[in-house]
Known about the structure:
There is one protein chain. The protein has 2 domains: about 1-50, no CATH class; about 55-175, Receptor-associated Protein (Up-down Bundle). It is about 85% helix and about 0% strand. It has helices at about 1-10, 20-30, 35-50, 50-65, 70-90, 95-105, 110-120, 125-135, 140-150, 155-175. The mean pLDDT is about 85.
Amino acid sequence: MVPAFKTVxxxxxxxxxxxxxxxxxxxxLCVTNWYFIFGGLYLFFQSWRRSLNIQRFMDTVLLKAPxxxxxxxxxxxxxxxxxxxxMFSAGVPLVESLDSVGGASGNxxxxxxxxxxxxxxxxxxxxxxxxxNSAVFPNMVTQMVSIDEESGSLxxxxxxxxxxxxAEVLALLTxx
Length: 176
C-alpha cells in the first residue's frame, strides 16, 4: 500500500513532511528485508519458549500491559483457582496440589509465585498468608481464601473465585 502511494506522491514532485518520509522509509526497509524480520521474529519466539528468563520478562511485561494485562491476570487467576479447587476437591493434599497448579497457570510469574507458596505452606504457613506474601493475588482472592480456609470448604470458595474471574474475563472480552 505504501509503495503505491510513494509513486503517486513522487509524481507530484512535492516535498513530503517528515513523518510520511519516515513511514515510507520503514516500508522500504520492511519490503527489502522481510526475510530478516521474519527470521528474527521466529528466533525470538523460539528463544522465548526455551528461556526461562525471557519467559519471565515477557510474562511480566504482558501482566503490566495496559489493556491485555488485566485480561491476562484475571484469566491466569481463574485457571490457577480452578486447578487448585479441582485438585483439592479430589482429595489431593494442598502441598501436592500446588505442584500442578503453578504450571497450569500458563504464566511464569504465577508459576514461580506458586513454588514460593508451596514452600511456605509446606513449612506450616497458611495458604492465605503465603498467597499474600506472593503479591500476585488481589486482596479479594486472599480474603475469600482466608474465610474458607478456616471453615474447611476451600474447594467451594475457590470454585466461586474461579466463576467470578471467568465472568470478569468474559465481560472484558465482550465489552465494546
